[in-house]
Design goal:
Layout (H helix, E strand, L loop, with lengths): L1 H33 L1 E2 L14 E2 L6 H21 L1 H16 L4 E5 L6 H5 L10 E3 L20 H8 L7 E5 L6 H12 L3 E6 L1 H5 L21 E4 L7 E3 L8 E3 L1 H22 L15 H12 L10
Parallel strand pairs: 3-4, 3-5, 5-6, 6-7
Antiparallel strand pairs: 1-2, 8-9
């Protein structure tokens, strides 16, 4: 009996020793992981720490901020703008079915990129007529024209927009003279106006601010359909340690997401209407140039910035 008790005692000690060693190893493993930021993707709308070391000279924390802000902003669009985007894409599809052009006007130095994003790009709708007037883009703002009173009326006339056409007016802050005048003039001309802008941005800019149209109107209030981009006031979103000013603007991420989503939704609605959508192919793949030439021939003279090759 004593011999059996002695054996049991030795087995018990051995078991505790083994558990202690395993526990210590597990603690070491977890401790080792704590020396690095662990990857934890929470899905759309959740924050994420992307694996990197915590060394003092690492700047990855700013990338995490930009990623999380972008994801949060786009999630708001996904959750709150479905109805507006459904209606906007329906208007766009009906316009295309009627043989009309869809006019796209990004009314600011960088907002103009929204028009570039969906014009003659692989997978993009062909009947897109972008408005690229002189002086508006930062690439040719000599002088800058986005605050020039009376300019929008001239621009709309030059690009031959017609009563009943659809126009997308895109500006994240939605307050400058060309932006406001474009919406007001387009409605006066009988166009169907879809606006993409950020209400929280425009609402945060006081009346009388130098960059505002004299009416102090906001683009968000001037569209037949308004799609909110949820860009925060000031556009920049990243906080850098020991530096007071935010960096890294986010509005282009919202604008391009929305206009590309509208493109896909419009194509889907055209297909459901029994139409065969005209879509650009990449000119850098086999058959792409041949596909695109037929459309360039068809729309030459109607779409002003259409290059032919």
């Amino acid at each position: 009996m004593k011999k059996k008790n002695m054996i049991l005692w030795f087995l018990t000690c051995a078991l505790f020793i083994t558990i202690g060693c395993d526990s210590g190893s597990e603690q070491n493993r977890i401790g080792g992981l704590s020396d690095q930021k662990r990857v934890s993707y929470a899905g759309i709308g959740g924050s994420v720490d992307v694996g990197s070391d915590d060394s003092d000279d690492s700047s990855w924390y700013v990338v995490e901020q930009f990623y999380n802000h972008t994801q949060s902003m786009l999630q708001e669009v996904m959750e709150k703008e479905r109805e507006n985007m459904e209606e906007a894409s329906r208007l766009m599809a009906e316009s295309v079915r009627e043989g009309r052009l869809i006019h796209v006007f990004g009314t600011g130095g960088h907002n103009i990129m929204a028009g570039m994003e969906i014009f003659k790009r692989a997978g993009g709708l062909v009947p897109i007529n972008p408005l690229f007037p002189p002086g508006l883009s930062v690439a040719d703002a000599r002088p800058a024209t986005e605050r020039l009173m009376g300019y929008a009326r001239i621009v709309l006339g030059h690009y031959n927009v017609q009563e009943g056409d659809v126009i997308l007016i895109i500006n994240c802050n939605g307050i400058n003279p060309v932006t406001i005048e474009s919406a007001l003039e387009a409605r006066k001309m009988g166009l169907k106006v879809i606006v993409v802008t950020s209400s929280q941005f425009s609402r945060g800019i006081p009346p009388g601010t130098l960059s505002r149209h004299p009416s102090n109107k906001d683009l968000y209030d001037l569209g037949d359909i308004a799609i909110d981009a949820y860009v925060p006031l000031g556009d920049a979103v990243v906080d850098v340690d020991n530096f007071d000013q935010k960096v890294s603007s986010i509005s282009t991420m919202a604008n391009t997401f929305i206009v590309q989503a509208l493109t896909a939704m419009t194509v889907d609605k055209l297909v459901k209407m029994g139409e065969e959508p005209e879509v650009w192919a990449s000119a850098n793949v086999e058959g792409g140039t041949e596909n695109n030439r037929q459309f360039s021939e068809k729309y030459r003279g109607r779409i002003q910035h259409l290059a032919f090759y």
